[in-house]
Amino acid sequence: MALTIYDIAKIAGVSIATVSRVFNNPDSVTESTRNRILQIAQKNGYHPQAFAQALASKRTKSIAVIVPVLSNYFFMEILSGIQDQLIESESELVLVNIMSGVDAFQQVQYQVKRRWADGYILISTHLTNEQYEELGSCQIPIVLIDDYHPNYDTVTTDNVEGAYLATKHLLDQGVRNVAMISASKLSAPIKLRIKGYKKALDEFDLFDESLIFYGNSDYRDGFSEQNGYEAMIQLLDSDPQPDACFCTSDIKGIGALKAMRERNIEIPMICYDNLSVSRYIGLSTVAQPMQQMGSKAVTILLDRIQNPSNLRSNVTFTPSLAIRDSFVSQS
Amino acid sequence: MALTIYDIAKIAGVSIATVSRVFNNPDSVTESTRNRILQIAQKNGYHPQAFAQALASKRTKSIAVIVPVLSNYFFMEILSGIQDQLIESESELVLVNIMSGVDAFQQVQYQVKRRWADGYILISTHLTNEQYEELGSCQIPIVLIDDYHPNYDTVTTDNVEGAYLATKHLLDQGVRNVAMISASKLSAPIKLRIKGYKKALDEFDLFDESLIFYGNSDYRDGFSEQNGYEAMIQLLDSDPQPDACFCTSDIKGIGALKAMRERNIEIPMICYDNLSVSRYIGLSTVAQPMQQMGSKAVTILLDRIQNPSNLRSNVTFTPSLAIRDSFVSQS
DNA sequence: CTGAAAGCGCTTACAG
DNA sequence: CTGAAAGCGCTTACAG
After folding, report:
1. How far is A51 from chain B, CA to nearest CA, in Å?
2. All domains of chain B in start order, with CATH
3. B3-24: pLDDT as tens digits
């Protein structure tokens, strides 16, 4: 069985308080005893257990990020921003995902209420108003990324504006029949992006519901290569064939490109996200500052943990266009 | 302040033991009191705290996955396999990454020794033999993915064979001047893949060190789009220009494709991994069964947690070829 | 089915 | 700088 602080204290001939101090507040212990204890600990493979420390100190020194799914490029890039920002703090990052199939709210609530982290960042877990309110009553530090609720600190981007920018840019090139490749209508960001898309088309009185394509696959609310592929096939098969496309995610755009390749046709397309691969694939896209979103969320969360009574922070980033081959090569 | 089990017990007029049972062993409590307690807990937002439970029960009900970096497509796909397999168990998954810049071994050791999870899966954390030995002395359940050490349960793929398959396939098409786009020579899998590449070329007496290109960027041991791009530029600039290429990762391949596009030249290329995007991009590649690797690791780990004295499991998967456009389109 | 009590492995004022 | 002691919020035999 692994040794405890008692064993180490006994071997060293000191009290457990001293051993504890060596690990938590080294300077408060004489150098010689500190070194002796460290050596004994090292030799016996001792290290304080995280949950015992957490229970006694009431701090876990970790923050948890909750995502709807682990394997998602958009989340990943946000995560790397979170990670970078966290390095300076003492805390570490743990990541959990809520499982599909089970009620998302229950899972989020479970994670938060167990309080195994000092604070939580929820990425794209779009709960209902009531659910957010119930969750908020827990008084636990939580920051929302990619969703908004007045009771929370939030970090979002302007989805309406992003979609508008993309669609407007296409229209400015002179094309008129601009389609949209959407994801699930239930997705919160999608609702906003449809708005932005519509707004741009409305300026020319060109909006037409039937120009929005949804694909078939439900996986990840339609944010998949496969769904993008399907949607582009639908788009290309429609009559009249649209002559440009706003596609709501880079990953979907990769699927859409495959469809275009197969049909041997290329229409201008602007996607959404600006993943790191997109630059290399040559995807034109609406750039979300994912790294920044992550780091900003950390800053806010850490601050909230320190000062629970702070005013709410609601940060909204404005997306920008990154135009590349997939657009230029319309030929 | 949040309520504890004592508060709930008091409100319900029962002992804390009963409250505890409601959450841990519901059937052992009369339905009526159970419902009453549940209701009180619900109303007051009570839920047992994870670390107090962990300390008392000596089980955290979670397993931790440690990765060298969060934003990596290869890890992500393994993770999704891990996640799927874990659903059936009671445990949940938490993910931590070790930070670059700080000594990897120290961080891994820290995570493991704090014992905040019941077991650990280490993905691609290539430690030295001595480090693995020291870590192994902790007696904590650990499974290695993508690395091998006799003291551990391991899940690997045959990197030599994978590289051999790819190179051999290119040679079988009649090309002779087959280059390799490598990553850092320090990477454990790379060493093996160079072996496999060499093995295939040796059969034709064609191996030539100068056919291996490394790119410049060090980030992620060279497993980046940028590095692949750089390496392909080097390759295309070399004289004589190689007429085919084994590229050691799909992500690097995406960078390499960009270089080829820019130079307006296309040589057959077989990459490595078979990420989900690769199918859509049309990348030919050596397929690693990433999902399977993840799920297998979970099975082994869960088993080891139950039966610490089990014999070691060492599973090796054999990769296979997935040939697509990037190869065919050599024209 | 329920309760009293010991114990999980730590931290941290408090006193010296 | 160090120790004795209380306490963190739970679980779990044990007894009834």
Report:
1. 5
2. 5-48 (1.10.260.40), 62-157+290-317 (3.40.50.2300), 159-288+321-328 (3.40.50.2300)
3. 899 999 999 999 999 999 999 9
